[in-house]
Design goal:
The complex is a heterodimer of chains A (310) and B (834). With 310 residues, chain A is an alpha/beta fold. Chain A contains 11 helices and 12 strands. Chain A is globular. Chain B starts with 18 loop residues before the first helix and ends with a strand. Chain B has a domain of 243 residues. In chain B, the strands form 6 sheets. In chain B, strands 6-7-8-18-17-21 form a 6-stranded mixed beta sheet. Chain B has a 5-stranded mixed beta sheet with strand order 4-11-14-15-16. Chain B is built from 33 helices and 21 strands. The longest helix of chain B has 38 residues. With 834 residues, chain B is of the alpha/beta class. Classes of the chains: A alpha/beta (310), B alpha/beta (834). At the A-B interface, strand 1, helix 4 and strand 12 of A face helix 27, helix 30 and helix 31 of B.
């Protein structure tokens, strides 16, 4: 069932969501394709289902109607990974679960679903092109996001190539942590790129994202060198206690400026909306008590971030 | 990228308040909004203060005068009887001029009022049984005195009980049809609930020619009638005499106001007000008798026509304002150019119309009856923008001024409609979108590129079609070309589905046979069999709907005539025929029938097909049992139903069902000719009727519980469109049989969160959304820009949110005035935010 190539040998992609009418991921009205799998594991990640590289079982307890009325999932699971929990709902033993998804097919309330589906370029494009009329009026198009979309390099490139051939405006939202050749190829195919730089302090970056920022910083420099005219937007998620200081933003801004003109810099305040998703994946969210930065803080940082010549 | 922050840099996920919400949060009392508006238009501001606390008084006087006159004219031609009655009303109806008014004329007592249309006595309109009439208690929405009750009981209702159009229809219906109509809310006839459906007058003609010119034309033609032409003497003569009577009466009515103003000026101590009253007196001497010369005269002339119109008859949705930015523009431009008028003075005159409309409340039913139009809705649709008759963009400075007034004037009037076409200037669309973003739900939008070709296909000329105006909540009208439409029937598609699933029976009618016996669904081997049973039930209901419409059409002219409406219509004047006496030579008769519960039934059929016939996850027996038990004890079944594919998500398989339902209705409509040789078109406008209609329908296979509201108008079921507004629009588009002309309004409500369209970038995106909706040939679209939290808070604390306007279905209403059922329904509608 799981195939990573379509009949013509073009790689399939593992996609966990396709969101239409996205208004904040590039110009116009856009469709965002979220690719699963990410080399980073940022503490504040709002799409934890985008981290893992394989399909994952999601259990939304609030939708479950309980074993008293149902219990079909337990009956069908061959791994005995589903148990009754004390409240009458169920508990997923993640160690036993192999992600086969049989339980999701019998679940009447869609409390159990598998996040991540292997889809071909054609399938994705068909969905993206449903909204053609909106792109035509708004200047919108397709945005590749994730996860890290360029971690599925072959699929992403094939999708971008097909989109270009069909006149669809494209944008990429990347962590910057990917193979340079993939990034270079993607940059030659996309109309714009949103590039995340979380912080420049390498050790802190390692602590909050699980990886060093060196390859990210290197990729950014190379990108700017190779594609000085590509519309590039640097984004920093402002996470209190991590990077919400003027010094930090000043540093990133300086770094971006040194790579040349014509690059925008945006700050995005942290939000906790992704928090509730962690439990549905059997994961723990560590920032439960973190509050978003205040409007005043954001304004102060925004002043620092504003680049000349934008 | 890992974070995938989806929000704008400025306010990610933060709650963005619309200007309307912000005003309520600040606790501002109702009043004009905007820089210095309250002082620049102080007169309007004073009229607004305490407006919503004013009691609604019943106007029994119009019905009393009507009855008094009708009793004296028995046996005479109907058009003459109504002309005499209208003249009697205009001569004796009490008049007043309120403090601060510069626009005069009212169809009721001072303050807010509701006119009793006793000729429409019956379940659709007003107090069926006189013995149920009691004076109002403190706190009742409508104030009815003991005197009102006595007058109604003794002088008015007995006469109309004996001369009831409603009873005549019911008596004339074939037995089988009557039985179906008596099952309330399966097919709901509305013919006797209003004299006719939405309408707008040719105000332009009155402004240009004056009433005297029309009256004189009738007199000349009367003189010219061949004395030996029996038909002319019997049919044309009474019509022309009626025009003469009504013309004189309208002129005299205006003069009464003129005399009152002059008399008030005599005793007025304030110099400024004295001057105003003298000006009012002069204007009322001039219009509507003669052509208007100034903006003030034009507005006053229009308002007199509208006032007399209210006194003459009840139109569904109340008579509209037509293309106000077109016919008033020459007067506006000229007065501005010649320095006679400022923008603020123009706004005061326009807003005087708005106040006048808001004072007149439309009562259909007594308090406590199931609500068909929540919140005392009425729709004096006021059209701006669109194309000129010769196909150019029609927007002008007055269009923008009216949009400005809509942002600044705090009541839910006028019911503003903007026509959008491919070449609508961005600047106009920008102003429209900024007005929508204010949050009160105005203006509603109409797509010229959908409507104009349809009107041409239906028989209008391009010139007529280009010049259409909106009437009612979402209808269109080609003035001087279309004949009237008798009140349409509402077809409960949910009931049709229930009959299909219960072999013709309905649970709420004691499991009695309401439809055809199309077989026990447990015996159906395929979805096709289910579909065939469904379409047979549908055809049966439509057949009876057409029969009742025929009866209503043909009987009406024996009970109702409208000489004033007729004298303003070119074709009625040419044919010397009252507008209710069809067919009028050259007139297009474009009626319709409404289908309610489209989304509910598409979803139900989709669930049946998927769960029972395709996947076999459910047996028909289990599903029907679950429906019988309203899903009690069948939660797993209900969950499967709720999670089956749904309309509104651009799922081609599901949308195809909607398309096929529409195709079946349209086939029937295409094969049908009305009594006047016109067509009855398929329309999806539920206003608020999907709530009472839902109350007679049991649990449905889409997971909806018994008695819950049906889906609303063309919109997907509440909260079931989860793929965003673009998918919703695409789905709606996919269900349309675009190749046929027997289609009318498809009303679409869309809820957007204020955050999703915040700022200038948000406005641009809303503009693009609207442009695309027009590219996709939506008939109508309207937005609710309001936070869900605000609606929930308003339910908890109605006092604080008294002034919160929301878009309901073709109109905006105060949220707190709506029934709890409708409030919850609005909250459940999907809010699109990404």
């Amino acid at each position: 069932m799981v195939r990573d190539k379509d009949r013509k040998g073009v790689p399939k992609g593992l996609v966990f969501d396709i969101q239409k009418f996205s208004l904040h991921d590039g110009p116009g009205i856009r469709t965002v394709v979220f690719l699963k799998g990410c080399p980073l594991s940022c503490l504040w990640c709002s799409n934890p289902e985008g981290q893992g590289k394989a399909p994952e079982l999601v259990y939304r307890r609030d939708r479950c109607i309980g074993t008293a009325q149902c219990g079909q999932c337990m009956e069908i699971c061959l791994e005995q990974a589903i148990e009754v929990d004390p409240s009458g709902a169920v508990f997923i033993d993640r160690d036993r679960c192999n992600g086969c998804g049989d339980c999701s097919h019998v679940c009447p309330s869609q409390a159990l679903e598998v996040s991540g589906r292997w889809v071909s370029v054609q399938e994705v494009l068909a969905i993206v092109e449903e909204d053609d009329a909106f792109y035509a009026r708004s200047g919108g198009g397709l945005t590749l996001s994730g996860g890290e979309p360029l971690a599925q390099g072959a699929f992403s490139l094939a999708l971008l190539r097909a989109a270009r051939a069909r006149g669809i405006d494209t944008a990429i939202e990347t962590t910057g942590l990917c193979n340079w050749k993939t990034l270079r190829e993607a940059a030659s195919l996309a109309d714009r790129i949103f590039f995340d730089i979380k912080c420049l302090a390498s050790e802190r970056h390692q602590r909050v994202t699980g990886v060093s920022n060196q390859p990210i910083v290197d990729n950014f420099r190379r990108l700017r060198d190779a594609f000085p005219d590509l519309e590039t937007v640097v984004r920093t998620p402002i996470v209190p206690g991590v990077n919400d200081s003027e010094d930090e933003i000043q540093a990133i801004r300086g770094f971006v400026q040194r790579t040349g003109r014509g690059c925008r810099y945006e700050l995005l305040p942290y939000h906790g909306f992704g928090g509730p998703k962690y439990a549905t994946l059997g994961k723990r969210y560590t920032l439960t008590h973190l509050r978003p930065p205040s409007a005043a803080r954001m304004q102060a940082l925004q002043r620092v971030a504003t680049l000349p010549h934008c | 990228m890992l974070e995938a922050f989806q929000s704008s840099p400025t306010s990610p996920g933060a709650r963005v308040l619309t200007p309307q919400e912000a005003r309520i949060e600040r606790g501002e009392p109702i009043g004009l909004v905007g820089d210095g508006a309250q002082s620049k238009r102080a007169r309007i501001q004073r009229m607004l203060e305490g407006f919503r606390e004013q009691p609604i008084r019943l106007n029994v006087e119009r019905a009393r005068l009507l009855t008094e006159s009708m009793k004296t004219s028995e046996g005479q031609p109907m058009v003459l009887r109504w002309a005499k009655a209208l003249a009697h009303i205009l001569e004796h109806h009490p008049i007043h001029i309120e403090q601060d008014e510069i626009l005069v004329g009212s169809a009721g007592p001072p303050g807010r009022y509701a006119v009793v249309y006793s000729e429409l006595v019956g379940p659709g309109r007003f107090y069926t049984h006189p013995y149920e009439l009691v004076p109002s208690k403190p706190g009742d929405p409508i104030e009815m005195t003991e005197q009102d009750v006595a007058t109604l009981k003794e002088e008015i209702l007995p006469y109309w009980e004996a001369n009831s159009y409603h009873k005549a229809i019911m008596n004339a219906l074939p037995e089988e049809t009557r039985c179906l109509m008596e099952r309330i809310f399966v097919v709901t006839p509305t013919a006797s609930g209003r004299s006719m459906l939405a309408w707008a007058h040719d105000y332009e003609k009155v402004l240009e020619r004056g009433i005297a010119s029309i009256r004189d034309e009738a007199a000349r033609r009367l003189d010219a009638l061949d004395p030996f032409d029996a038909k002319a003497q019997v049919e044309s003569r009474p019509f022309l005499e009626a025009v003469g009577l009504v013309g004189d009466a309208m002129i005299a009515f205006a003069r009464r106001y003129g005399e009152l103003a002059a008399a008030m000026a005599e005793s007025e101590p304030g110099e400024e007000r004295r001057r105003e009253l003298r000006e009012i007196a002069a204007v009322c001497q001039r219009v509507p008798e003669h052509p208007a010369r100034t903006f003030h005269e034009a507005v006053q002339s229009q308002w007199f026509v509208q006032t007399v119109s209210r006194l003459e008859q009840a139109v569904g949705g109340v008579v509209g304002n037509g293309r106000i930015d077109q016919y008033l523009y020459p007067y506006y431009r000229q007065d501005i150019d010649e320095g006679r008028l400022t923008e603020d003075e123009a706004l005061v005159l326009l807003e005087s119309i708005w106040v006048g409309m808001a004072r007149s409340v439309d009562v259909y039913a007594k308090p406590g009856m199931p609500s068909l139009t929540d919140g005392f809705a009425h729709w004096e649709a006021t059209t701006v923008g669109g194309l000129t008759p010769d196909g150019r963009d029609a927007s002008n400075e007055l269009s923008y001024l009216i949009l400005k007034s809509k942002r600044e004037f705090p009541l839910n009037y006028p019911d503003l409609a903007a026509r959008i076409h491919a070449r609508t200037p961005n600047a106009f669309l920008h102003a429209v979108c900024e007005t929508i973003k204010d949050g009160s739900g105005f203006p509603k939008l109409f797509c010229d590129d959908e409507i104009i070709p349809l009107l041409v296909a239906k028989g209008g000329t391009l010139e007529e079609a280009n010049d259409y105006c909106i009437t009612g909540c979402s209808e269109t009208k080609m003035l001087n070309r279309e004949g009237i439409a008798t009140g349409c029937a509402w077809i409960n598609l949910g009931a049709i589905l229930e009959m299909t699933l219960r072999n013709g029976r309905m649970n709420c009618y004691g499991n009695s046979l309401v439809g055809l016996q199309t077989g026990d669904p447990r015996t159906f081997q395929s979805f096709d069999e289910m579909w065939n049973a469904f379409t047979r039930q549908l055809e049966n209901v439509v057949r009876h709907t057409f029969i009742q419409q025929y009866v209503a059409d043909t009987l009406k002219s024996r009970y109702i005539a409208s000489p004033m409406f007729s004298m303003l219509h070119d074709l009625c004047m040419a044919d010397c025929k009252d507008i209710h006496s069809g067919p009028i030579e050259g007139a297009l008769y474009l009626g319709f029938f409404d289908v309610m519960g489209f989304g509910t039934v598409i979803d139900s059929l989709a669930a049946l097909r998927t769960l029972v016939f395709e996947e076999g996850k459910l047996s028909m027996d289990t599903l029907l049992e679950a429906l019988d038990h309203d899903f009690e004890g069948y939660e797993a079944v209900r969950q499967m139903c709720l999670n089956a594919p749904k309309y509104g998500n651009y799922d081609p398989e599901v949308d195809r069902i909607g398309h096929d339902i529409e195709a079946r209705f349209i086939d029937l409509a295409r094969a049908h000719k009305t009594a006047f040789g016109g067509e009855l078109d398929l329309r999806y406008v539920s206003v608020t009727s999907h709530i009472p209609l839902g109350a007679v329908v049991g649990a449905t296979p889409d997971g909806r519980k018994a008695r819950e509201p049906l889906s609303e108008s063309i919109s997907p079921s509440q909260g079931r469109d989860v793929r965003g507004p673009t998918a919703t629009l695409a789905s709606i588009s996919a269900t349309k049989c675009a190749q046929h002309k027997e289609r009318a309004a498809r009303l679409l409500n869309m809820k957007l969160s204020p955050a999703s369209i915040a700022g200038e970038a948000g406005t641009r995106k809303l503009m693009a959304l609207v442009r695309t909706a027009c590219d996709m040939r939506m008939w109508h679209i309207q937005f609710n820009i309001v936070n869900r939290d605000t609606l929930l808070a308003a339910q908890r604390d109605p006092e604080k949110y008294r002034n919160l306007l929301v878009r309901v279905a073709g109109y905006s209403a105060y949220f707190v005035d709506l029934t709890p059922a409708l409030q919850s329904e609005i909250i459940r509608r999907t809010e699109h935010e990404f």
